[in-house]
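Re: the 374-residue chain
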Amino acid sequence: MENTQTVKVEIPEQQGYSYPIIIGENLLNQIGKLAKNYTKAQKLLVITNKTVYPLYGEQVKASLEGANFEIDFVILEDGEKYKNITSLQTIWQRAIEFKLERKDAVIALGGGVIGDMAGFAAATYLRGIDFIQVPTTLLAQVDSSVGGKVAINHELGKNLIGNFYQPKFVLTDTLTLKTLTVEELKVGLAEVLKYAFIEKSCFCHLNTQSFIEYLKENKDAIFALNPDIIQKLVKYCCELKAAVVNKDEKESDIRAILNFGHTAGHAIEKCSRYDNINHGQAISIGMKGALHISRAKRLIDENYYKYCLALLDLYKLDYKIPNSIAPEAIYQAMFNDKKILSGKFRFILSTGKSEVGIFSDVDKETILESIKIL
């Protein structure tokens, strides 16, 4: 495969287990050949949704059948509100009917919602079968397909029911981004900007230029989906996340920094019932709130606060909480977050210069103040 780049994710806790993230263009046609290299499966169950299947379903099917796999599809509804036990049961039901065995595999073809559900289904069916990630959105390519977090939502909170389950490989075809709307692209860009704010805390310093400055200089090329720029962007975000996951797979410590903006963000998504605000908007709100708390605690000064907000504004990310969601409701929703430890919130706060820390001493008044300014 020409013009591809690979990022290696290593999991020392699993006796040196590792897997590649393969990034390039026109890779969907190669999925059959690659699957032969990374799994001993004979049957593959492809999990996708009603938006993605018409775009890429037949292409993926042809490649897999060309490699002599027996395949079947589960085509789910599209949206975060469908990341639930009902959809999971649909996947399990089809896996049983298709007679998937322990040597077989599940493929996630879609965005973060599909990746999370397919991965959790693979982790739990027959106590675990092979899992392959094929992310088709920017959010999934730079973040959710990397690191092995798989889960479904509960009515009381986001991603509360899940597992850590690593894929056999990740196939990232950046051409799939061309079918996204600008708003869909911005959902992923919220996570990209998150990496810029935490870059120096990720154990991975590959650029002489800061990621914030890189994003400022290349904004137009990124929105235009310039092939070289996009591949570099996706690869670097994966490298940053992989470096953290390689240190702490199950979020016992440093992996929590990847949740910058997510403590409030997930609570806002829950309060909206995953319906009238998308993940990118929620995380943008959460990042601005975290920056406000960082300034209130004097971890950063006014200049750095405005410097970070200027990047959010440059990418025209929306960080306005709908009037229908009360600050107290958001605060209460935070108590059902996975990041609670000993009854206390763990906020990821900026300490300046693209570095962050983990803090458990943020009082209710400061939290509510940070929500009310949004």
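The chain has two domains: 5-179, 182-224+249-372.
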